[in-house]
Every structure is written in structure tokens, then in C-alpha cells.
Amino acid sequence: MKESIIEIVHLLFTAAIVNEMSVNYAEGLSPYEHKGKCGMPEKFDDADVLKEKIQQLANYFRESKHVVCITGAGISTSAGIPDFRGPKGVWTLEKQGQKPIVDVTFEKAKPTLTHLALVALERKNYLKFVISQNVDGLHLRSGFPCNRISELHGNMFVEECERCHSKYVKNTIVKTMALQLTGDICSLKKPTGRFCRGKLRDTILDWEDNLSESALEISEKNCKIADLCLCLGTSLQIIPCGNMPMKTKKNKGKIIIVNLQPTKHDKNADLLINAYVDDVMKGLCEELGVEIQSFKRYYIKLESIWTDNKDSKKFPSIVVDESLQENKEIEEEQQEEEQTNETVKEELNEDLKRKIISEEKTDDLDIKQVKKENIKEEAEVNEEGNVKEEKADEKK
Prior knowledge:
Blueprint: H1 2-16, H2 22-28, H3 47-63, E1 67-71, H4 90-95, H5 113-123, E2 129-132, H6 138-141, E3 149-151, E4 158-161, E5 167-169, E6 181-185, E7 199-202, H7 213-225, E8 228-232, H8 245-250, E9 254-258, E10 271-273, H9 277-288, E11 318-320, H10 322-395
Parallel strand pairs: 1-2, 1-8, 2-3, 5-11, 8-9, 9-10
Antiparallel strand pairs: 4-5, 4-7, 6-7
Helix pairs in contact: 1-2, 3-9, 5-9
């Protein structure tokens, strides 16, 4: 019976995946009643209050040694991907018998300012770890290092080998969900020289699927040692992620919540900010003097991979899909072509300079030669004149 239900869900998902949008991801999940409180009113801090809160947030960052960030659907709304429990969220409209208007696919969605700000903060050593409840893949696409993020609910672009637990980052969304077999085979080569050939599954969790033990373990560990837990765009209603900030609180750390709607941990927050996450993160980076780079790439940048650990289940390797690698190679080829063009320009400029210098030298030599010839001719003329004068004197 359970397998039949899963097959039906799979078919529903496949049929709904035509536009490959977040709303279709939601439709692909099995029926579930307890989706939390939806459609609660949004609240916005006044401009002056918001400015003061951002300054306080920056001070907390300066004082902290281990900052962890928990992200929810609210950080992707400015990319055109709807959230779930906001006034126009997927679950909110579902209760009203409506569907959200979506104008972007997962594949075409670009990382938001918040995604890029998190990358910038990590590179400046202000941020140690990100725990994401999102499946849109924008964290990895933004360039956030894969060994510093835990995607608790999966990633629409990732497949995992059921044998060696290696993860494959794809350039297109995986066509299954609920941890089903995708039909692909693991091509990772073992130290013995043989290929793993394990079967790949999607990483998307259905409502009652268990979280990955490794993802859960590393998330809880980081929250326990954190002295600051920043919650961005999440209502914190889904457990266990929703309760992770309290692990930081028990360690005498601080909780910061940035959300437009109330959360169940508002009363435990050391700082509560009601504003758009993009505005808050922009202000935070300005206060810290951290530059947010614009989004320039469409392939996954893997700065470090989980291969240097004995326990492969906890630290799987990351494999980049060939199509992603092709994109990278195309960009590298374009960069090489640009460099070649620059080199050619420089060489042409050098040749031109040498030619000009050579011509100038030739002109100088010609002038000197002409002067020499003029002097010689003048000397010859003078000499002839002197000879004539001498002959005239002799005749006299």
C-alpha cells in the first residue's frame, strides 16, 4: 500500500513538474494536514528602528566567534520563488483553493542578495555554517561552500548514491522526489580503481521521511557550539530545525530572528527584526564593511569537498554533473579567449611601439646622414673654391 502511494505521488510530481517551480514541488508532496499556521499578518519595523537593529546585529556579529544561520523560504521570495506560509504563500493559498503566481523556474532562478551576502560573510570569516530548509539549490548556486551548509530537506538538483553516499550536483532538477531511485548510477571511482556503480536517489524529503542522519548531526553540532544563531525568513514551525536555535540559547548564545511574521521563538530572541531579509543583510554587510559580490556564474563552485574523512556516510564526496562542468569549461574558455585577445593586443601595441621607435630611429639616421652629406658637399665646395683661388694666385 505504501509503495502504491509513493508511486502515485511520484506520478503526480512528474506530471506537475512541467514548469519546474516551487509550487509544483509542493504539489509533489504527499497529502498532509499539519502544515502549521499560515497567512499570519506581516509586520514591518519603522526605518529608524530598523537602522538601530541592524547596527545592533552588526555588533553581535563582531562579538561572536561561531555564527550559524538558519534559512527558510523567505530568503528566496525576491528570486520569484513563493514561500509557504506568507500571505501569498503556497500553503496559505492552498487553503483558499488558489495557487500562487510564479514567474520563474527553479533552473532559471538566481540567488538573491541574501544568498550572496551569506557567501560574502562566510568568506570574511563572520559566518561558520548555514542550515537550510530550502530545496531550491540557490545556496550552492550562489557559491556557498558545500562543506559549510546542511540542506536538511534536500536539494532539487542533487542525487545521492545509496551505496557510497556521494552526492551529485546536477544542472537540471532531478525528476523524482521522496528519496526515490532516479535511474542514474554512481560513477565515482573507488581507491581500488573500480567504479562504485551504486544506485542514485533524489534527496527531497516527503512529509514523514526521516532527515539525513549526517545532515542532522552536523546541524545540531554547529547550533550547540554557536554563540549566535541568525534565523532568516523562516517561521521555525517545522521540527527539528525549528527548535535548533534553542540549542544555541542553552549554550548561552544569542538568537536573532529576521522575519515578517511571528515565530514560535520570538519570545526567546535577543533581537527580533521585522523587515525584508535582503534589506537587513544589505545593511548588515554595509555596517561590517563587507562587499557583496554580484552573481556572475551559473555553475556550482566547489571550494572544498567532503573526501578527507574516514566515515563516508557522514562526509560524502561531491560530484559535479558534466553539464555543470561544461558550463565551467565554457566560461574558462571565454576567459582564456579574452586573455588571448588581451595578449594579442599587447603584442600588437608592442610591435607598433617598436615600429614607431624604429621609424623614429630611421628618421634620425636619415637626418644625420643628410647632415653628413651636406657637410661633405659643403666641404667639397669649399675645397674646390680654395683650389681655384690657389690656381688664380699662381697665374698672377
